[in-house]
Every structure is written in C-alpha cells, then in structure tokens.
What we know:
Layout: H1 43-53, H2 66-74, H3 77-91, H4 95-119, H5 121-129, E1 133-138, E2 141-146, E3 155-159, E4 167-179, H6 181-184, E5 190-192, E6 202-203, E7 208-220, H7 226-234, H8 242-271, H9 276-290, H10 295-312, E8 315-317, H11 321-327, E9 331-334, H12 336-340, E10 346-352, E11 355-361, E12 368-372, E13 375-376, H13 383-394, E14 399-401, E15 411-413, H14 416-428, H15 432-438, E16 441-445, E17 453-459, E18 465-471, H16 473-476, H17 486-501, E19 505-514, H18 516-520, H19 522-525, E20 530-538, H20 545-554, E21 558-562, H21 567-577, E22 586-588, H22 589-594, E23 605-607, H23 611-623, E24 628-632, H24 638-643, E25 646-650, H25 656-661, E26 664-666, H26 672-708, H27 720-731, H28 733-738, H29 764-788, H30 793-811, H31 822-840, H32 842-848, H33 855-865, H34 867-878
Parallel strand pairs: 9-21, 9-24, 21-23, 22-23, 24-25, 25-26
Antiparallel strand pairs: 1-2, 1-3, 3-7, 4-5, 4-6, 4-7, 8-26, 10-11, 10-20, 11-12, 12-13, 14-15, 16-17, 17-18, 18-19, 19-20
Amino acid sequence: MAPDAQPSGHDTGAGARPDRPGRRVAAGADPDPRPAPAPGLSPDEAARRLARHGPNEIPAEPRTPVVRRVLHQLRDPLILVLLVAAALTLATGDLSDATVILFVITVNTVVGVAQEVRAEQAVMALSAMSAPAARVVRDGTERSVPAAEVVPGDLVLLAEGDIVPADADLVVAVRLLVDESSLTGESVAVEKASDGDPARGRVSAGTVVVRGRGRAVVTATGADSALGRIASLMGTAPGLTPLQRRLARFGRTLAAVIVALCAAVLALGLVQGQPVELMIVAAISLAVAAVPESLPAVVTLSLALGARRMAERHAIVRRLPAVETLGSVTVIATDKTGTLTEGRMAAEQLWTPRGEATVEGTGYDPGGRVVRAGATATPEAAPDLAELLGAAMLCNDAALAPPSDGSSEWSALGDPMEAALLVAGARLGLDRAAQARELPRVAEVPFDSDRKRMTTVHRRPDGGLRVACKGAPESVLRPGILRDGPEAVARAAAQAEVLARRGYRVLAVASADLGEEAARRPAVRESGLSLRGLVGIMDPPGSGAAPMIADCKRAGVIPVLITGDHPLTARAVAERLGIASRDEDVTTGDRIRKGTAGDLAGVRVLARTSPEQKLDIVQAWRGAGHVVAMTGDGVNDGPALRHADIGVAMGGRGTEVARQAADLVLADDDPATIVAAVEEGRRIYANVRRFLLYGLAGGTAEILVMLLGPFLGMPLPLLPAQILWINLLTHGLPGVALGAEPVEPGAMRHRPRPPEESVLGAGLWPRILLMGAFIAVVTLVVGVWARETGRPWQSMMFLILGATQLGVALGSRARPGSAANPFLLVAVGTALCLQVAGVYLPLLRELLGTEPLPLTDLVIVCAVSGLGHVVMRLQARLKPERPPRGGPPGAERR
C-alpha cells in the first residue's frame, strides 16, 4: 500500500477559533493536550530579532532602469540589422521605408520592455502569498501582528483557514491538517503532529491550515523560509527564444552576404564606366532590397494574431515570443496536481465482499452515478454499496458547498478525502441530511496518526447505537476490530494492496449495530465490527489531459510528468494518460539527491521532487538540446516555469506565483489549449519561413539581375529608385500578409524541428536560390528580348520583376484555392496595381524613370509573370514545407 494512503478524521467544531486577539492566556485554561512551552517572546526581544533578521518578506530585486532595458532590447541582433537598414534607407532618401522600419523597432522595444517589467512581478507575487497578519503570543498575551513582523522564535497560533506566516516547528497540534500542495505538489493535505517526527512536526510558509489548530515556534522567515528559497531560484528567464536565435544567426549571415554582393555590384558598375555616385546609390539600394525589413512586421503580426487566437481560447499570452516558442517545443514537462489532474480528491473505486463498482462524475459535484456491471447502482439495488458509503458518510466531518460567488463548481469544506466520500454517497443516491437526522452522532474517537482511523457513534431510531469506523487498511483490517473471518480479512487486504499499487489512497470502512450499554464502553466501540468494504480515492486526471498527451505524442513532443506526489500515484496517472508504460522506471527526488537517478533527460516520470529538482530536470532536458515547455500551477512550479523555454500556468487553480512566472496562462485550466498553442506556434514559424522564401527569393533575383545584366549588354539594368519601389511594394503589404496565413493541414502530425536547425534549414536555402534564379532568368530574358526588339526594356524588366515576385507570393499560400487569409489577396492586388501605375502615371514615371508600355507588351508581361505562381506551386508540391515524420529529436537515443 502507498505509504501516504492514510485517512484523516475531523474534530467537531475544529474550525472555531477558541482564542481572541489580546486575550490573556490563563494558566491551565488551554484546552490543548499539553501547554505551550513558553509565553512567547517579549516585545523588546521581538524588535531586536526583527532588526537582526529583517522583515518576514521576500526580498525584492532592485529595479532595472528603463534606459538600460531599452538598450538591452536594441542589442538584439535582428534589431541591429533593422537599424542598419533604416540608416541605409534614410541615406537613399526613402523616408517611407525608414519610417516603417523605425516604427517596427519602436513597437518591438516597447513591448519587450513592458514584458520585462511584468516578469519581475513573479518574485513580488511570492510576497503576496504570505499571510497579511499572524497571531502570535508575546509575554503570555495573544495578539495579531503584521506577518512581516513575525521573527524567528515567535510562538504563532494556527487555526483552520490560516496561511502559515513562516517556517515553524510545532509544539502543539490538535488534529492539524495542512494543505501543502502549492509548495510540494502533494495532492492530499498532510497531517501534522508535535510528536518529535521532523517531517510531521514542521509547517512551511505559504501553506494553508485545512483543519484543526496548533502552536508553532518560528524557525525561518523571509528569504530563509521555504518561499524565500523558491524565490532565490526564480532568477532571470532564459535568453533568446528558438526563433530569435535562428533569426539572429540568419541576420549575421545575411549581412555578410549582402555587403559582399553589393561591393561586387559597385565594382562591376565602376568597371562598366558608370558614375560613382550612381553606383553607390545602386549598391545601397540593393542592400535595402536584400534586407527583408518587413520580417519584424511579419513576426510581430504573426505573434499578435497568434496571441489573439489564443485569447479566444482562454489562453493569456504574457510574452509574445512565447507563442512561437511552443511551436518549437520538443518536451512538455508537466506538473500533476491541478494541471493534469483535477486538483481535488475523488472516490473512484468501491469494493465490497460482494463485488466492485466505479464512481463516475467530475469534481465535488454530487451529480454523477455509481456503476456496477455496466448498470447504474442504487441503494435498493446495491445494499452492500449503500452500507459501505453510508458508514463512510456517518464517520465524516467534511461538507460540500454548492457553487457561489460566480463560480460554477462545488467545493469541499474540510478534509478533501472525506469530501470525496460524501460525493460518492450522493452519487449513489444517499441523503446525508436525512442520515444525520435519523442517526445523530453521540460520541466519537477522533483520528490520530498512531491509530490511523476514526470512529463515530450514532443513535439509531429504535434506541440502539451504530458504530462507524474508517481508516487505513492496516489499521482497520485487524482481528481485534473486525469480527469477519481470517479469509475475508485476507481477501480485503489483498484487494487494498491492488488498489494501492494502482495509485489509489485506500480507506477501509466498517460498522456495526450495538446495544447502548456496549457502545458506551470505549473498549467495545472499535471491536466486533463488520467490514463494509474499501474505497479507492485519487486525484483523477482532468477530462482534457489524456487527449492533450495523445496529441503531443502524435506531434512528436515528449511528455514528462514531474510531481511532488507519491511514486505510485505518479505512475498510476502516467499510465492512465499514456505518458509512460507500466514497466518504465519512476525516478524520485531522493534518488536525484543521492545522485543515483542517472540522466534526467531520459526519464518520463519523476515523483517526490522539490522545486530545486524540478528546475534541475528542466535544465537537464534543455542541456540535452531540447526546447522545453513547463506546465504547472503551484509555488513549487515557479522556478521551473521561469527557467523553461516557455512556462505555461493554470490560471484558475494556479497560484499567483505560477501565473506571474509563466509566459502563457490558461484561464480555463484546459490542458488541451496547450496543443492549440503548439499548433499556433508551428503556424507562426511556418509563416516566417514562408516570408523568408518569398522575400529572399525576390532579393536574390534583384541582385542577380544587377550582377548579370551588364554581361548581357545592359550596363544598369534597373535604376535605384526602381529597385526601392519594387522592394517597397513586394516587401510591404504582401510580405506582411503572409504572416497571417492559416496553419497548414497536418501540421500537428509531424515532429518538431531540431532546436539548432537554421531558420533557412530543411531545404529552404535551395528553394530560395531556385526561385530567385527563376525570377532573375525570366526578368533578364524579357529584358534582352525587349532590348533587341526596340521595346522599353528597362520598364518591362521593372514591371516583370515586381509582378513575378507577387505571383510567388500567391503561390506561397498555405491553403491555395481557399478563402483563407483574404488579406493576402487584397495586398497582392493592391501592390500589382501600384506596380503598373509606376509605368503609366506621369508623376510616378518621372520619379521612377519608366516609360509607358503598349497594351500588347503589358499583356506579355502579365502572362510571363504568372509563371512565378505556377513554379512556386510546383515547387511546393515537389518539396513540401514539412519536417519529417517520426519521434522527437533525440528519441532514438532512449
């Protein structure tokens, strides 16, 4: 059986606060099992310790000046390329292009600075989790003080609903139950006791008292507390995203190539006898044409559209590049509790000596049913199940709260495991209110860690008494308690072991009807009971978790489960969701600590992990060359969320720390949204590559025309103004419109691109050169033919060079023939009209140095330029823009 498969009971009225602030604690009046060892610190001593240790707050990082943030943004390699392009366009007098480029730089810088400021709130949110006030005993007097003034050595009082203000050791604990899920990932609230056990006798800052009360001596505050140690792990986020790294490498390479080619054009023109001033302007114009200055606009538009689409699906993008990063993800490391699971306990499996049954339903909503042999069970049709759940509902101090305050979900009041029993009983059809009226409680033996069971005594309508008991199987399935025979007890114990190995926390339930005199004797209350059965309780996987994992695996993304919960529970959830098979090993935090876990970048299920170890696991996968997404909802997930390539937090159940540390927040807690975000990221990356193919092919064609033209008898094939005009039209609206292309069919049936692959990798460079060469050949052939036949050859080359590029843009569509992205059709049509206007409008003819074409020549140019669309579609069919199928990169190593 799982070591943590222990039940817990409730003390009647445990939620009451017996003491009021300012009341003198009289000697002998404390109802606790033992008195506090000291009257607490004196006010003077507390002040001295506050001065020595500082306030009980998470230290805030010094603010970075805005100027430094701006300079940091401007050091981005892509921004530097844009600054050079802006300088070149200003040098040529192209104010429109320069204005657009500078506007893009400004927007990107403002957005980047704003996101950095918001990211700083991740550590600040840790402070908000601390209790705003705490109850302490000083000089024997109970008083309320700000949590920031709690110091080591303070004697703090804890009651139901309190947030623990600091790390502390318990000196008194009365049925104390603490929810540590946000800090440790443990699904079930943990029982605490002042029995000398270090683990059970310690409470941590930021955890919540679910039940009972206690007193504790503070041992650590502020940065030295559990929250403070997690805050120190937050640090700074990783540097550039995969797309930013790829674009930075691309920018450096492109800059070097452009400088070399422009120098060659300049030298070739001077050898041909062209004026120095003209060739310098032509070289600069070629540089501007070759730099895809619309690239930032394409990226920004794609990211913005992606963020808008994600918002429509209840996902809040806190950092725009995060949308694209998900498209490059090769590993999704996910927390269990509250992320893959519902974050609440549910009684799923029922067993009685007569058979098994399954409980169906969601959350704490009483709506649902109990199924046995494929049919819905009722108390009349399944009296054994009614006895089992009836006894479990009697021996119970929890309650269910209906939806309120705008929430649509039921919630648990008290121990979540006991609430799960109430839900199971309600789904069978039992009425707890009627049960309480018919069988009022008259006595109880509360749960404690030594007995591991709880027993209640109830008066029957006929005057006798009913005893109900529930507890850990090893505590209840004993001859001294049960009157069932050894064979029946052994059978129940074997079934409890089966359920425990499947990851369930198991409760055994027994009851008996006794005479009043017998039941009043304590020794008789817990003897001679009849076993009613077993209940298997688990934090069940959410409805969208299994489809999400399946979709990720189809997309070639490795799912990894990282949790602070028990290994058996982690294995059970991993098997149910398809993350790991039954024979795969589960690594624990203890093995990681001892150095016996091996390579962390190869284990799919990790349990009992600390926040530091979650961070180590994420870093191990990243160090192995993977792009890692981390999903979580708790404080313990904060460091890993912050340091992963992209952090995804649950917005509804998640803590503020997780939300502030993440790049993407799922407002509806639906993990299926992660798959949609991965698809959106792949769409963005595909559109960036689509634009680069289109834009660089056009730039390559322009450079080839300028380089080869002189050898064909055309000393200056195109004037600088004509190059800039073509560049403005092709890289303007049509280029930006490519960023709005929809996702390609089948995008999620292929593995992610290798993290270190160039943005021009996977065969894109050859395609760029092929299309550039084709556009150049078409332009030069038309130019030579027009010159030999006495036509206005330069104007025809100007027109066909731009029109063919626009044909390539239409051929680049993700879904040709559909009505998707009408913006591209409008942009291409507008650009084509302006290109033709450059030949026929007198004002533009004078500006560009063109001549009007006869109608026959215009028809020829339009017909030939249509070849750009045809060749682009043929190329897409022969060399589809898709990564290879198969598992994620590196999967073969495992």
